[in-house]
Amino acid sequence: MTKPDEVILVDENDNQIGISEKIKAHLGGKLHRAFSIFIFNASGQMLLQKRAKGKYHSGGLWSNACCSHPNPGENTEAAAHRRLNEELGFDCPLVEVYQFVYQAKLDGGLSEHEYDHVLIGSYDAEPRVNPSEVDDWKWIDPASLREDMQRNPANYTYWLRVSLDDVLAKLRNGKAN
Q1: Cα(163)–Cα(112) distance, rounded to whole angstroms?
Q2: Any idea what DSSP says for residue 108?
Q3: Is the pLDDT of residue 1 over 50?
Q4: Sign of the C-alpha dihedral computed for residues 49, 108, 119 and 72 taken in this order
Q5: How many CB atoms neighbour CB 42 within 10 A?
Q6: HSE of 50 in the Cβ direction (CA atoms, 13 Å)?
Q7: Beta carbons of 64 and 46 less than 8 angstroms apart
Q8: Is 66 a catalytic residue?
Q9: Can you tell me the distance from the alpha carbon of 38 to that of 156, in angstroms, rounded to the nearest whole number?
């Protein structure tokens, strides 16, 4: 029998306070550690993935390159590299640029309450997507993305909508170098 996916429960300062099955944390809205990876190419375009429809939440929505949770006992950066490879079939250097906490009601009675570590990387080839994780992908100019998110917010994940402006500001201010 396989062990259920687990997440690291944290306090408002990202100190570990426990471990929970991932689905129970999302059903109960428990604050847990997560990460969001934003990948840009040399032309300044951002890599988006369309989450697989079969995902337990937010399936079929466009999102940043990769989002997930570290496993208990795994540091956030190692988890980010692992998931980037598992979902998109590549790895690249990543720089953590900031963290934020958010809460959101999701489909299926689930909710997010995450202490999210935001990492930025650079990559210029095509990803080799894992079809159980990703239905589609594209490179997009951030200005075009911002315009489409304003017109069609329901096509995008909540965490992408609330973090994009901060990520772009960090890039403009040189915080991702």
Answers
A1: 14
A2: G
A3: no
A4: negative
A5: 8
A6: 11
A7: yes
A8: no
A9: 14
pLDDT in tens, 96-126: 999 999 998 877 778 889 999 999 999 999 9
Strands (E), the chain: 6-10, 16-21, 32-40, 46-51, 62-64, 66-68, 94-105, 111-122, 134-140
The continuous run of DSSP H or E covering 91 comes out as none
CA 85 to chain centre: 14
Alpha carbon distance 31, 28 (integer Å): 9
Residue from 66, 67, 87, 112 carrying the catalytic annotation: 67
d(CA 9, CA 139): 33
| Active-site residue, selected from the candidate residues 114, 126, 133, 147 | 114
67 belongs to the catalytic site: yes
Range 53-82 burial, b when 16+ CB lie within 10 A, else e: eeeebbeebbbbbbbbbbbeeeebeebbbe
Q: Fill in the DSSP letter of residue 76.
A: H
Q: List domains and CATH numbers for the chain.
A: 6-172 (3.90.79.10)
Percent of the chain scored above 70 by pLDDT? Answer: 94
pLDDT for 90: 97
